[in-house]
Hints:
The protein is of the alpha+beta class and 115 residues long. It has a single domain, classed as CATH 2.40.50.140. It is 22% helix and 37% strand. The chain contains 2 helices and 7 strands. It has helices at residues 2-20, 67-72; strands at residues 33-38, 41-43, 50-55, 58-63, 85-92, 99-107, 110-113. Strands 1, 2, 3, 4, 5, 6 and 7 form a 7-stranded mixed β-sheet that branches. A hairpin with a 6-residue loop joins strand 5 and strand 6. The protein is globular and about 30 Å long. Residues 1-20 form the signal peptide. This is DUF5666 domain-containing protein. InterPro entries: DUF6152 (IPR046150). Pfam families: DUF6152. Keywords: Signal.
Amino acid sequence: MFKRLTIAAALAAVPAAAVAHHGWSSYDESKPITLTGSFQTVTWGNPHGTATTRWQGKQWGIVLAPTSRMQARGLTEAEIAPGKRVSITGYARRDGAPEMRIERVMVGGKTVELR
């Protein structure tokens, strides 16, 4: 009985995990956006980092890459800390929600590709 409940619970959790993470198809890759400013918040964590910034009069959510990828490509948490000046290039959500998936970060004279 316990084994069946464990399996049922595991199977029930799979769809929730799949829904919790967004797919990249919800971002409009035909219209790259580049903006320069600073992040208000940064979360250095997995499954990927996140940040927030003000742009076009709105608070935007920024989807970064996994921390291991950012570090492997030479981007440090300190370089994108809140208040640090950065340029970012990415794609906005197709549905108009104020969220961007970032492809690259330009900071301190270097460009870091995140995808």
